[in-house]
Amino acid sequence: GTPHKYDPTFKGPIYDRGCTDIICCVLLVVAIVGYVAVGIVAWTHGDPRKVIYPTDSRGQFCGQQGTPNAYVSLAMGELGTLPEKPRIRLQDCSGPPWLGCFQICVNRCPDRFLTLLSAYSSSDMEYYRQFCVPGFSNPLKVSAGNPTPESPLAEDAFSCWPPLSLFQNPIEILKNQECPAMLIPSTPLARRCLPAVQAKQGVIMVANETTYDDGTGRRRNVTELLEGAKKANLVLEARQLAMKIFEDYTVSWYWIIIGLVIAMLASLLFIVLLRYLAGIMVWVMMVLVILVLAYGIFHCYLEYAKLKGEAGSDVSLKDLGFQTDLRVYLHLRQTWLAFMIILCVVEVVIVLLLIFLRKRILIAIALIKEASRAIGHIMTSLLFPLCTFFLLCLCIAYWASTAVFLSTSNEAVYKVFNETACPYSGQICMPETFNTSNVTKACPDAQCLFAFYGGESAYHKYLIALQFFNIFMFFWLANFVIALGQVTLAGAFASYYWAFKKPDDIPAFPLFSAFGRALRYHTGSLAFGSLILAIVQVIRVTLEYLDHRLKAADNKFAKFLLGCLKCCFWCLEKFIKFLNRNAYIMIAVYGTNFCASARNAFFLLMRNIIRVAVLDKVTDFLFFLGKLLIVGSVGILAFFFFTQRIKLVQDTAPTLNYYWVPILTVIVGSYLIAHGFFSVYGMCVDTLFLCFLEDLERHDGSTEKPYFMSPGLQKLLKKSNKGHPDA
């Protein structure tokens, strides 16, 4: 700990420490070993192809080598829930497939309306046969033999089954799941055939038809297919939007990178200037932010005035509704008026805050200067967030891949289906040995058909628990990585503060030394703090899941209770994050365990609550203004460039479908870059602040207890080391 009298060989309290929270360290290691084991088991049983490739009703992949569907990979199947009509309805696909609907792999999507009943007794059966299972032969119209596919691409089509009593000869075909009952003109999307619904002059049509034969002799309107194809149309629209956005990225990616490099250079330049001109830079920053907002207000006014009298510019946002093309909103006067009002409110609030907090800002400037000096001596700290980001990416990648493999670990389950009474009905069967089993002897009409993806083993029964464990470990490890980054930076900056002679007493490689101390002595404490936060976050995720499931419920009390719980746990998470951050600083400084560090940090802050509010929060506000200046400046530059309003580079700017795509990318990327640089600054300020408070409480400036704070802070607080030769 800290000595009670000055010792010239003392280099600060950060060096006197031992291992802390060993039990939590062991628990973390065991959990990681278990997590790796879960990942190995998931990768052994999982098959990500189930997410990408469609399957037929027998659970076989379409277009996969080594299967009966090796040359057919587009799938036809259930359209969705159609409005109920007499004698026509979709059955539950979990029951016998020949009573409801099934999926089948085909070479291409159908391009006409056709029913099995009408094709069976006509020349259309040859066309219809290509949408049947491989090897199907119609004894009346075609010869036996396997079809020869014209394309290696296979697709997935969905079919709906009318009641079996409507068929005579085709009933055996339907019963054996050899052909669909009806074909609907479809278009391929993601290896699946979806109804080709289109609107012409306000009339809903499918293949230029407004009605179709449902296979029972009745004519039905194609609008009844809309419910089943609604989600498919949304997917189509989303795909078109995604393709346009992708095209914009392909022609503007290098300009986006240039914009991000400018943001990085601006952030670095801002920090370097703060080291030497902190006071001037802070005030200049405030003035520039005010000027940027003022220009934004002026620009909005110009756009608002320019649109006056133009056709369609007076349409309200409410009447216009949601539009995927955001450029439409920029042609409305109401849009620019809203922007102008918002910027005016922000401008007034910032000016008032600067007026009332001007004295507090002077104190914050002194603290920023001290942080600038600390970062100037430990410049590698600015690059350390890249290490944290890399470790977080590893956590995310492992969690995502494990989740995919776990979700695709289910196996194809086959069950016995039959028309007559059978004691084996509903039991699990194996298609390979079914014909030689006792089931076919006892029930001649029984069939072994694909039922669903699942499993009867212990592994499959606990898949949900493994997914929950996967989510929990992701939160735990992600919080641990963040905690490791915080305690490393805190240890490096604390070594600067507790150096009596700055910079002579600063140890060599302070960042790497702090990283080593954190892993060697305090892995358990970091695991403890991140475990508490992970538990709260998992509870929040569970509450969000329950809220999603209860949206359709009409229980107002349950919704109210759930809302209260969500609010409480949100507040709890914010408090734990604040407490953990300061506890990690105390761990880095004194090497105490997590509970003792959290308690000491909390009561230290409570004893200096006024200083906390004045110094810490005002400093955070100044950092926010710095981010706003960098993001705002780069964002405005990107706006003028991509909208081709800069004449010098007007011909260089790429032609885009949506110019807001690269602009938003540059703005978000600039914010993340600025946030990374300023997060280091924020951790430095918080660390120096807690060390400063400890220094004030433990020392009095005497020869026995000199202050470790810099002469600048001593002068600011009118303190001094009285009579000390090195003061």
TrEMBL record:
Chain ranges passing through the membrane: 21-43, 253-273, 280-298, 336-357, 378-400, 471-498, 583-606, 618-642, 658-678
Topological relation to the membrane, as annotated: Multi-pass membrane protein
GO MF terms held by the record: antiporter activity
Record GO cellular component, one term: plasma membrane
Keywords: Antiport, Cell membrane, Glycoprotein, Membrane, Mitochondrion, Mitochondrion outer membrane, Phosphoprotein, Transmembrane, Transmembrane helix, Transport
Localisation: Cell membrane; Mitochondrion outer membrane
Catalytic activity: choline(out) + n H(+)(in) = choline(in) + n H(+)(out); ethanolamine(out) + n H(+)(in) = ethanolamine(in) + n H(+)(out)
Domain of life of the native organism: Eukaryota
Keyword Transmembrane helix part of the UniProt annotation: yes
InterPro entries the UniProt entry points to: Choline_transptr-like
Keyword Cell cycle part of the UniProt annotation: no
Family designation: Belongs to the CTL (choline transporter-like) family.
The protein's role, per its UniProt record: Choline transporter.
Record protein name field: Choline transporter-like protein
Organism (species): Nothocercus julius
Lineage summary: Eukaryota, Metazoa, Chordata, Craniata, Vertebrata
Gene: Slc44a2
